[in-house]
Amino acid sequence: MADGSNVTMTGAIRTGCPPWSARPRRRWGEPWLAAVAGAFTLAQLVLVRPDLGLGWDETVYVSQVSGQVPAAFFSAPRARGVSLLAAPIASWSDSTALLRIYLAVLSGLALYFALRVWRAQVMPRVLALAGALFASLWVTLFYGPQAMPNYWVALGALACVGCFLRARADSGDRAGLCGVFAGAALMAWMRPMDAVYVVLPLLALALRRPRLLVVLAAGLLAGSGEWVIEAYVSYGGLAQRLSDASRIQGGLGLHLAVVDQWHSLGGRTLCRPCTGLAPNLVETLWWFALPVLAALGAVRARRALPVLLPLACAATAAVPYLFLIGYAAPRFLLPAYALLALPVAHGLAHLVSTPRRRTGRTVAVGLVASCLAAHLAVQYVVLERTLRSSAATRDNWFRTASALHTLGVRPPCLLSGYEAVPIAFYTGCGSAQTDGHDTSTTAAALARAAHRTPLAVLTRSGDRPPAYARTWSMERAGVLHAYVAPFVRQGR
Fold first, then answer.
1. Among 130, 197, 207, CA closest to 168
2. Which of 112, 149, 220, 248 counts the highest number of beta carbons within 10 A?
3. What letter would DSSP give residue 355?
């Protein structure tokens, strides 16, 4: 390894700096970061594929800014950051492929800049390894090109913590302060409550640094401002919105969701309820190795904040999704994974550098490389399984939408019932529900709407329709049954 990394390592030892620390203003490692970000973008385009249809939550976010479909009901926990992120494409085009390509490129660029803020804190190759570890997770690859908030919270967290360390070390670092503000704002813009949990350790460290504390708080307020204002305009106040959000998430409280999160790692995008067979242990072994390697990196760091602080922020970011809600989705832990990648990379670097003899080091490098190769293979297998399942679900929605068009349910129209929200997006209709998390109307209002709007109620085979639709004509629509309002039948 007679390259620049050894020069940095030797120089660090001679000057008394720890070997995990990078020298400030060293830029020769940035091509590694660019390579990681570029490979991440390419992997999204090749493996996830731009033609994957929009998922349920994506249809809600995209419909808010789409010029082609009515806006779906926007429930209390959601924030509008993703909608605004998708707006440059979704506001004028209905091409899912174009939206995916845009988000894939944007997510790769954002990963590069989020990693770049750490270049003065972490050795370039360790930093590149951290980025590669995060970017190669199946859940990161799957959600990178999607109109979903969790990946962007993860990058906001990574950037915010890195810039916080810069600003803490140099109070005159304006770029660091701006990064703290921007990272906190991005997190709060996407998911306000997630942002609060991520920055708890930062707030504790900033108590004796008023300027840094003000900048961090200002970022949180700037990002969540729209969400708070909307709470008073549309949800009956902030307390009511928080209460509604808690109810929709099953009631925030003490819930042990660790096992549920483990169950979701086999490729289930939502585990609610989390029943069925447990995932293959080989496919989830990496999850159990994360805390071990992170702890190894922390021990090796010996109080070094560039390792300990992301570890602390990862822990607080994971708390609500491991212990406070009663269901699981692998994307919920993306911010924790992004932050954990740094101490894990340090832990792996320690394993490789510990043997003093060349033979021992060669063996260590070989073992670590073999484990990482096996890890990549596992991530690919789970990603492919998740893509097949997700594509099948979206194809069912598309077929149902095509059948509804054949039945005369065309825009402007309205859907209600089972999976009405995503199917309405594919059909070009609005959606309205009388119960559940997306309750936005009443049965009486839908019965009245049936006399002036093409309306259909969707049910699974064997389920009964609501009382107001029991006299309507029942038709087959893909794998579902559609009870079509008489107004539609008369108009055909």
1. 207
2. 149
3. -
Counting DSSP H helices and E strands in the chain, the numbers are 20, 5
What pLDDT was estimated at residue 253?
85
The strand pairing partners of 433, in sequence order, are 439
Residue 347 CA to residue 21 CA, distance in Å, equals 14
| Separation CA 405–CA 234 (nearest Å) | 33
For residue 415, give the 3-state DSSP assignment. Answer: strand
Question: Could you report the per-residue pLDDT of 402-435, keeping only the tens digit for each?
Answer: 999 999 999 999 999 999 999 999 999 999 999 9
Say how far apart CA 220 and CA 79 lie, in whole Å. 13
Amino acid at 101: I
* Residue 137: closest CA among 314, 364, 320, 372: 372
* Between residues 8 and 189, the one the model is more confident about: 189
- 273 by DSSP, 3-state: which? coil
Residues 287-297 have pLDDT tens digits of 999 999 999 99
Measured N-to-C along each axis, helices 150-169 and 210-234 cross at an angle, to the nearest 10 degrees, of 150
| Rounded CA separation 315/364 (Å) | 29
Is residue 129 a contact partner of residue 365, using CB atoms and an 8 Å limit?
Answer: no
Quick one: which of 220, 246, 321 has its CA closest to 76?
Answer: 246
Task: Answer with the residue of higher pLDDT: 21 or 59.
Answer: 59
Q: What would the pLDDT profile of 77-95 be if each residue is shown by its tens digit?
A: 999 999 999 999 999 999 9
Compute the distance between CA of residue 165 and CA of residue 309 in angstroms, rounded to an integer: 9
Identify the helix (H) or strand (E) that includes residue 58: helix 56-63
Write down the residue that tokens 């390592």 correspond to.
Answer: 9
Assess contact for 180 and 164: CB atoms under 8 A: yes
Collapsed DSSP state (helix, strand, coil) of residue 439 = strand
Span 199-243, pLDDT tens digits? 999 999 999 899 999 999 999 999 999 999 999 999 999 999 999
CA atoms within 13 A on the CB side of 115: 35
Nearest to 78 by CA among 232, 224, 260, 271: 224
Sign of CA dihedral 339, 341, 344, 346: negative
The pLDDT score that the predictor gives to residue 347 is 94
> Strand, helix or coil at 56?
helix
